[in-house]
Amino acid sequence: MIKKISLRLRIAPMTCTLLAICCISLAIFINISGTNQMNQVAVIVRTSKTSELVLSNESVDTTLTSADKELLRPAHHIFNVRTIVYCILIVVIGGIIAYLFSARIQVMSNFYFKNQRRK
Questions:
Q1: What is the pTM of this model?
Q2: Rounded distance, CA 13 to CA 106, Å?
C-alpha cells in the first residue's frame, strides 16, 4: 500500500515551482528592460561625446554601432549572470522557508484534528 505523502513534502515543491516560475518571468522582463536601458545610455553617451549640444528638435542617431555593442557586451553579461544568481537564491531560500514553515502547519493541523476527534 502506498503511504500518503506528507503535507510538508507537498507544500515545499509547489512553493519552489511557483517561485521558480515567478523569478524566471521577472528575470526575463528585467533583463530585457536592463538591456534596453543600457543601450539608451550608450547612445546618449556617444551623442554627448560627438556633439557639444544636442537640441531637442535635432534628430539623433539612436542605432548602436558595433563598437557600442562590443563595449556593452561585458555589462550585459554581468547583468544577466547576476540576475540568474539572484533568481536561484530566491528559489532556494524560498523553498527552505516553505519547507520549515510547512512543518509548523503540519503540527498545527495535527493538533487541530486531534482536538476535533475528542469532541
A1: 0.65
A2: 15
Distance CA 52, CA 38 (A): 22
Segment 5-11 shows an average pLDDT of 78
Angle between helices 7-50 and 66-118 (to 10 degrees): 160
State the Cα–Cα distance between residues 67 and 89, nearest whole angstrom: 34
Listed by start position, the domains of the chain span: 17-49+62-118
Segment among 45-49, 92-96, 109-113 with least mean pLDDT: 109-113
Nearest to 47 by CA among 65, 72, 70, 33: 65
CB atoms within 10 A of CB 71: 15
CA proximity to 89, closest of 99, 97, 79: 97
Residue with cell string 531637442: 56
| Contact yes or no for 16/114 (Cβ under 8 A) | no
Q: CA-CA distance, 25 to 117, in Å (whole number)?
A: 45
